[in-house]
């Protein structure tokens, strides 16, 4: 995030472990294609898929191209909708494939040879594999001397989920830090690749106005919502052992919380930004078991409808236990115990199969006093909200009260707004472009440091512990906005959820 002029990234060999998986074809290759289209990849950059199925370099490249063509036809979200054959041919020349078992020494000998053949010694190992391979691959890379940086940089990108609770995240960090330094580790959270998420920091800290009221004197509470219309799709087996809390909260939702709540960093550099994030997430109050239960709601979608379309319940989804008690929706109340935020609740909610797709932060300000309106027999003024919409309609909106024109004194809610589409022409992107580019250039600002990850798990661990022997899931119909208990969570505090969509 330091740069305003973009240079071609340094050359390297980028090894994609889990090359035949969804992430590579859906997101990483389209992102690399977009970077190549924008002239940001060095001519010497090589991309090498690593996986156990046998294939040649050409077969691997052809499969990727075929997938991207199909995507063009379906014009899926984030896809570049006009795969240019010439551009692709340029990229395809740099694509290779290496057949190998992730846990066999021979694979790492082959990798070493590929690096030797390149004219530079730089290498990035991208772990787009199932998380059960993370520690094994990293140990093998270390044992084979492939993380030694004497002949060029060596970096490892780790996808989520990074652990499934605090203890496993700590163990994984310890395993990584045994064979390399923190500077070599790039823990990805794809939310940080989103323009609108990066914009929270820029908007907060470049507009003098915001800082004046960004605290517990003026803000009543904050709501962070990530509502999805999709169900668990083909990921039933993974999701059933994960659930909405682990899948979305310690990572994506806490990134949003940190962007909104952190103190201004001394600079927009990796260490300063990540230190402030670690501090604010570390300041989340650890609830007792009873309070964790009181301040959380777990929901699970049952059969429902989207328009006229009938939707199955979660327990009927493929590869899901028909008696599953896994949550597909979670709502939480958390408190941040520091000077800026003491007394300001942060309400978080995320769910699958909700009525609309909407990721947003709603900042609710304290209401104006009523005395001056009492004699005029006016309703109490509604609180002002600042809504920062991350997706799909990216922008920021501020609710104000205004007088409706006419002889009567009537107040109405109006909006000041900024929509990205009205100001900026955005190229199609997957969100991974910035992250891959930053990894190539060695900028860790948008990646999670070990303490960021561990503080996130530390803050959700009380909920995981409390739910172990209690907390049945509350049903909600697919296509609706979560269980009634989530409304009660706010009603108890005399508040309501900001309407989504
Ligand atoms: C992923 C989760 O990390 O994020 C998915 O595993 C979820 O379950 C996805 O659907 C949401 O990402 P986005 O960018 O669509 O908000």
Separate helix tally:
17
Query: Tell me about the biggest sheet?
Result: 9 strands, mixed
The total beta strand count reads: 17
> What is the third-level CATH name, the topology of the largest domain?
Dihydrodipicolinate Reductase, domain 2
Name the structural class: alpha/beta
- Number of self-contained structural domains: 2
pLDDT under 50 segments (min length 5)? none
Give the N-terminus to C-terminus distance in angstroms: 30 Å
Overall 3D geometry? globular
CATH class of the largest domain: Alpha Beta
Computed CA radius of gyration, to the nearest angstrom? 24 Å
CATH architecture field of the largest domain: 2-Layer Sandwich
Helix content: 25-40%
Bound molecules: 6-O-phosphono-beta-D-glucopyranose
Active site: 252
Keywords: Carbohydrate metabolism, Glucose metabolism, NADP, Oxidoreductase
Catalytic activity: D-glucose 6-phosphate + NADP(+) = 6-phospho-D-glucono-1,5-lactone + NADPH + H(+)
Function: Catalyzes the oxidation of glucose 6-phosphate to 6-phosphogluconolactone.
Can you give a write-up of this model?
Keywords: Carbohydrate metabolism, Glucose metabolism, NADP, Oxidoreductase. The chain is an alpha/beta fold and 501 residues long. The chain folds into two domains: 147 residues, 3-Layer(aba) Sandwich (Rossmann fold), CATH 3.40.50.720; 300 residues, Dihydrodipicolinate Reductase, domain 2 (2-Layer Sandwich), CATH 3.30.360. Helices cover 37% and strands 20% of the residues. The protein has 17 helices and 17 strands. The strands form three sheets. It has a nine-stranded mixed beta sheet, sandwiched between helices. A six-stranded parallel beta sheet has the order 3-2-1-4-5-6, sandwiched between helices. A two-stranded antiparallel ribbon has the order 9-10. Helix 6 links the parallel strand 5 and strand 6. Helix 10 packs across helix 11, helix 10 crosses helix 16 and helix 11 packs parallel to helix 16. It is globular and about 85 Å long. It starts with 12 loop residues before the first strand and ends in a 10-residue tail after the last helix. Bound molecules: 6-O-phosphono-beta-D-glucopyranose. 6-O-phosphono-beta-D-glucopyranose binds next to loops. 6-O-phosphono-beta-D-glucopyranose (BG6) binds next to loops.
